[in-house]
């Protein structure tokens, strides 16, 4: 897994959200949370597992909506940030944070109603193993995102400290099929790179997003989207 040691650093965990989801990055946070909710709502009383939950951005959000959720991550410091966030939100009775390996999930088959992962597969060295494990412990739905090969991210991927695994549409569909999943639908977002939004203030991010959205709604925009969301179900 790329970045495994990097994510273990206390200072990385403590500054993770500030660096990525402040300023114009707040727009990215809102869009990603909307993508999750659009895919898996209603969540109340459903048993949900989040893979690579990090600081608990999605875990706590879903617990606040009544989900019974487990957040799993390999980084102790990131999980500590999540626990503090859960305590502040008053939802510790609806969630549990566990440290563990997404390639060997410590749960029986068909244990959760929903299993999802955000910002995970771009770091995966063996994506087929992780997706198969996600499918194994879900009795219904698996949702995840990927960064795309034919996007603006490919132009600067080599500059990033860990790089990213970028996927084309055919590769993802093969992974889904090989994991015993059926693709329900997919959605695509952000022609402009994430890094651009993070470097601009809020007041500029929203009008820039309008331009981005006008392109993403066209066929060429979907082909150049930075991120894709994949909503799948377990084959019976």
Automatic annotation (TrEMBL):
Residues 49-137 form the Methyltransferase type domain. InterPro entries: Methyltransf_11, SAM-dependent_MTases_sf. One of its GO terms (biological process) is methylation. The keyword Methyltransferase applies. GO terms for molecular function: S-adenosylmethionine-dependent methyltransferase activity. It comes from the Archaea. Keywords: Methyltransferase, Transferase. Pfam families: Methyltransf_11. PANTHER family: METHYLTRANSFERASE, RHODANESE DOMAIN-CONTAINING PROTEIN. This is S-adenosylmethionine-dependent methyltransferase.
């Amino acid at each position: 897994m790329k970045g495994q040691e990097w994510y273990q650093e206390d200072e990385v965990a403590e500054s993770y959200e500030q660096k990525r989801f402040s300023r114009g990055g707040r727009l990215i946070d809102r869009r990603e949370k909307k993508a999750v909710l659009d895919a898996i709502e209603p969540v109340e009383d459903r048993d949900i597992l989040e893979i690579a939950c990090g600081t608990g951005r999605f875990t706590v959000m879903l617990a606040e909506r009544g989900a019974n959720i487990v957040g799993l991550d390999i980084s102790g410091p990131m999980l500590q940030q999540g626990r503090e966030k859960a305590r502040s939100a008053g939802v510790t009775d609806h969630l549990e944070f566990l440290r563990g390996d997404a390639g060997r999930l410590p749960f029986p088959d068909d244990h959760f109603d929903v299993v999802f992962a955000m910002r995970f597969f771009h770091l995966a060295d063996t994506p087929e193993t992780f997706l198969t494990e996600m499918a194994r412990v879900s009795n219904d739905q698996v949702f995840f995102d990927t960064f795309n090969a034919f996007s603006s991210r490919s132009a600067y991927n080599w500059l990033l400290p860990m790089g990213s695994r970028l996927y084309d549409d055919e590769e993802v569909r093969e992974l889904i099929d090989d994991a015993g999943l059926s693709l329900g639908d997919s959605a695509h977002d952000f022609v402009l790179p994430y890094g651009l939004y993070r470097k601009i203030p809020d007041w500029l991010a929203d009008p820039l997003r309008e331009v981005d959205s006008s392109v993403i709604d066209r066929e060429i925009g979907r082909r150049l989207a930075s991120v894709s969301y994949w909503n799948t179900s377990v084959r019976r």
